[in-house]
Amino acid sequence: MTPEPAGIVVVGASLAGLRGAEALRRRGYAGPLTLVGAEPHRPYDRPPLSKHVLVGELEADATRLPELAPLHARWRLGSPAIALDRSARALRLADGTALAYDKLLIATGAEARAWPAETGGRLSGVFTLRGRDDAAALRAAVQARPRRVLVVGGGLIGCETASCLRDLGLAVTLVDPHSTPLAAALGTFVGGVVAECLRDVGAEFRPGTMVRAFEGDAAGRVARARLSDGGTIETDLVIAALGATRATGWLQGAGLRADPGGVTCDAACRVLDADGAPCPDIYAAGDVARWPIPLYGNRLVSVEHWGNAVEQAGHAARNMVAPPDDQRPYQHMPAFWSSQFGINIKLAGLTAGADALAVVQGTRASRRFLAVYGRNGRSIAALSFDQARWLPAYAQAITAGSAFPPIVDATDQPRIETAAPGFPPPRAAAPAPSRSETVHA
């Protein structure tokens, strides 16, 4: 099939893809622009899906993102990219369409890690929550008032959904292999606060619990979870909150540094080829991008956060229209927020590798506090539980490379409480990333 006219093609029609396309137009790019999306929907906002949509405050189709600049773009929705031919400077869509490009922005994001089909993943009543259609289907299932909802995974999505489901008065059990929720992201010292919140709202929390398989009834609907210790949990609705993998399968064979952990870029957001050289015509942004972050020793990270998707897409667009000798490095302080159990949680920085923690405002017991994470005597992240007023000052201190803890003489600061963060050791069965890490929102 003859390729369509070239120009800039944005693969991924979600937040990063949309904001990147808008930035291209604002930067003066007036040529052909095409946005390719795997889903049939125009770009929409994902954070409300696990909160407002789940509880019925917002319809799934009311989450469409505002378009902030005239795009004058061709939209190719509902047919994902399945292959990239760099020598021909073209990509192929699932419907057989070939799209030529002069420059390419990869913003395909991430995909929910599904429960394996061979251990019950295809049973009716087993859900993941990533996209708009997922949220609409899960909302319909919740409206049927299941007897017990089982949430597998105590990350942000698992905790947010458990909180919302308890607000609806549903019986909820959350299982996680660690001793507390959010242990991998925030450590067990902070995760213990979330465990208390779960129990206070009447959810059952089962720490140190692994699900081996789901079993169904005669109609093919999930009926119970079989556990690694031989026990079972009766349930008629399951939310598998197992994290995400980057949507990079379509890049197999393209000669790029891409795998389920992301697409590796240089500091200017240019994608690296298999030999480690930056491709001058291919950029990446958002959840799918993995890049060196100077603030943390140029460690490769992929950041699954709303703010990063917007900022990185804009920066990539800037470099796409800039001359080769003006490719500026992307500077970003990773940050995320989450609302659960009536608490607003915000994090600035990366907690990975932290060896110390200090509660520098409020108290852990009150569930209103600000904690700082340290590594080798330096402050690397700050976390707020309903204490966001102080967060900008600590984020600034982290950017400056301040000692741990960075602020010790604030006028309303109580006695500083120090503790071990309590990060669990890497699980032996999990593949160890070679040089990168993923930060989830």
Automatic annotation (TrEMBL):
UniProt cofactor(s): FAD
Keywords (A to Z) from UniProt: FAD, Flavoprotein, Oxidoreductase
InterPro entries, A to Z: FAD-oxidoreductase/Apoptosis, FAD/NAD-bd_sf, FAD/NAD-binding_dom, FAD/NAD-linked_Rdtase_dimer_sf, Reductase_C
Domain Reductase C-terminal residue range list: 336-406
GO cellular component, one term: cytoplasm
GO molecular function annotations of the record: oxidoreductase activity, acting on NAD(P)H
Keyword Flavoprotein found: yes
Short name of one Pfam family: Reductase_C
Domain spans labelled FAD/NAD(P)-binding: 8-313
Region (Disordered) residue spans: 416-441
PANTHER family: APOPTOSIS-INDUCING FACTOR 1, RIESKE DOMAIN-CONTAINING PROTEIN-RELATED
Name under which the protein is recorded: Pyridine nucleotide-disulfide oxidoreductase
Origin species: Methylobacterium tardum
